[in-house]
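User: structure tokens for this one?
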Amino acid sequence: MDSQNVSHGSSGLLPYPSYVAQVGLQSSPFETRAQSPIAQANYKLWIEHARAENRRELERLIATLHDDCEYEVVPLGQRWRGKDEVREFYRGLWRGIPDVKLTLLNRIDAEDCIVEESEVYGRMDGPLFGVEPSGHELRYRVVIFFPVRDGLFTGERVYFDVAEFARQVPAARPLLDGQQPGQSV
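Assistant:
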């Protein structure tokens, strides 16, 4: 195993392994490093949620949420409250980008939340959360915060780079000036 020497305070140089997989650390974003039973349960909840979303099994996905859940797309200032509105969130996502896929890049499993970094991609063939379609392939990164209470998600908060999104979707350019798409200056 290759290692490098690193200065560690006044204790001198310590070797550290340079190949993560060889020392048993997380080498895939689908593995978990969660130690506590609660964080491990949250990881299993996230897996159930992700599988349901990928398979478009809306009611199975909704079953991972509290009745008073709230979804927020932070850069757009939009929220969906309760399971009925969250169903509309997903229907809107799947209409806007019918072939939407997420590639998981990283994930943190904690006792009170899951945090996911993914790359979203697909062709934007319909309106997406009030933004008119580009008709082109889209690819952008998101960070999604999933708060957990009593073994269920209380929602999602989605963050992404509006400038990158607007570069790919011309109808989203008003967002760069703090306006909603379709508003006049």
